[in-house]
Amino acid sequence: MRHSTEECDLERLRAELIRAYERFTAPVAGLDPVLLETAPAVGSWSVRDVAGHLADWQAEMLDAAAHILGGPKPKHHPIKHTQSFNTMSAALRGTQPWPEAAADLAAVHARALAFLDRLTPAQLRAIGPFPWGEVGPLHRLIGELIAHLDEHAEQIEAWRLRQG
Questions:
Q1: Residues with Cβ < 8 Å from 42, sequence gap 6 or more?
Q2: Under a CB-based contact definition with an 8 Å cutoff, are residues 95 and 42 in contact?
Q3: Residue 143 is part of a domain; what is its CATH number?
Q4: Which of 14, 80, 84, 124 is deepest in the core (most CB within 10 A)?
């Protein structure tokens, strides 16, 4: 059976999302939760803070993706000041334990995979607003979600190398 280019794009996006998530989680698997909650890994943020940040932004991106396909517009979009959003989100998570932050990231990852599994190839071309106000096709928003995971996975890999 031949797959269309768009079907291959869906399969590729799904595989890339899984790869990026595993890239983020693999370097921290089995580490002491206290280390993951307290050691600065990315600037002043711990791995827990980064995981919470990723979970929050992925949720925002998935809400925007649903809106692109006709769902309700998230009330606080566009997020005009991303640094303020990041600071506020980190403060709201406060001293959340690592297992909870990791579970939040796993849950939003499962939500993203389920979203991709429901998409039709034609929906990847749908155009709409991203959480930060830019407008573009859905496939690019999903690509941004994956790139964001990869960005922070690379930082966590570097942190692990520094840890020895």
A1: 49, 50, 152, 155, 156, 159
A2: no
A3: 1.20.120.450
A4: 124
Taking alpha carbons only, the member of 131, 144, 151 closest to residue 67 is 131
Q: How many domains does the chain have?
A: 1
The residue among 113, 89, 105, 92 whose CA lies nearest residue 54 is: 105
* CB distance 53 to 156 below 8 Å: no
- Backbone phi, then psi, for 30, in 5-degree steps? 80, 0
Residues 6+ apart with CB under 8 A from 99: 33
Query: How far is Cα 54 from Cα 51, in angstroms, rounded to an integer?
Result: 5
Closest to 51 in 3D by CA, of 161, 144, 153, 164:
153
CA atoms of 88 and 107, how far apart (whole Å): 21
Domain that holds residue 13: 5-163
Rounded to two decimals, the pTM is 0.93
